[in-house]
Amino acid sequence: MKKALYLLLSLTTLLPLVSCVDEEEFPNTSQGNFQALWKIIDEHYCFFDYKQHEYGLDWNTIYNKYNVRAKEGLSREQLFEVLTDMLSELRDGHVNLSTPFDYGRYWSWFEDYPTNFSDTIQRLYLGTDYKIASSLRYTILDDNIGYIYYGSFQEGIGEGNLDEVINHLILCNGLILDIRNNGGGMLTNAEKLAARFCQEKTLVGYQQHKTGKGHQDFSEMEEQYLEPSSNLRWQKPVVVLTNRHVYSAANEFVKYMKNLPLVKTVGDKTGGGAGMPFSSTLPNGWTVRFSACPMYDVHRQNTEFGIDPDYLVSQTDDDFARGKDTLIEFARKLLVE
Q1: For residue range 293-324, what is the model confidence (pLDDT) as tens digits?
Q2: Which among 29, 177, 209, 321 has the fewest CB atoms less than 10 Å away?
């Protein structure tokens, strides 16, 4: 059978709707599925050179390590464990193995770090009469600072929603835009929101595309620009709150916002996820997702392992005990200085 490699549309519309390549046929055996998976990643994954530099990843060594475990006659659970362990060597939250019975994932990019977010404490700031516009939760804090929470770019927002939110907050002295725990979703939603804070066409980064099967086969870097919205725009200071669970399209959103003059970022380093994911199918029908097109910041630096905030701030135990969000309080002070 021929396998197709598909672009996941949930993260971007910058590439053609479907990208397909022919894959070599492998038998539906433990070894066949192992060989197919290793080869798919070998030919199409986009961060080999970067991760070899960062922590010494050698995909050929990984082959030897897991080939001896992929023995014939493995149960589906045993094979799943071997393949998932191999994929975890990439240390990439965009690399997943989907089966009817389990979902192989690498989540250490946020599980190994403090959450720096409490929805219980957040409710104290939102109160009970906060407003809801599609996926946005927003209110005005008692020091006349606007507060917006957007928990997932998978959840859509309309231009009309954004107009209403900005109109409601228009007399505030500044704005806190909280995207903590936003694991990504639709890049179009991230762009739509960022455009409301952009006053002129702004270079925000670069991207590349795979041009061949070699680890270094990429196109030249292509510029990424953010265009200002033609609708109502926010033109006062903004603080974006981040934590390690900010990933993928949310990581890109932070990349965009850091290039805008009235924006500061506060919190923890983001989780990263700077490769647009594609997917392919193994002989047994399992689906593997993986990073295929790398994206970079305006300095041409890779953001796969996250973006540092302008102000590194963590939730303190004392503030938590008092029902205070350290990051929100820091942002409020920053906005009134």
Answers
A1: 999 999 999 999 999 999 999 999 999 999 99
A2: 321
Contacts of 192 (CB under 8 A, 6+ apart): 157, 159, 162, 229
Provide the whole-model pTM: 0.92
Contacts of 280 (CB under 8 A, 6+ apart): 3, 4, 5, 6, 23, 40, 44, 287, 288, 290
Mean pLDDT, rounded, for 187-212: 97
Q: Tokens 């770090």 appear where? A: 113
Beta bridge partners of 149: 137, 178
Which run of H or of E encompasses 18?
none
What are the φ/ψ torsions at residue 276 (nearest 5 degrees)? Answer: -70, 130
| Nearest CA among 261, 262, 254, 272 for reference residue 309 | 254
Name every residue whose Cβ is closer than 8 Å to that of residue 255 and which is 6 or more positions away in sequence.
204, 205, 295, 297, 298, 303, 307
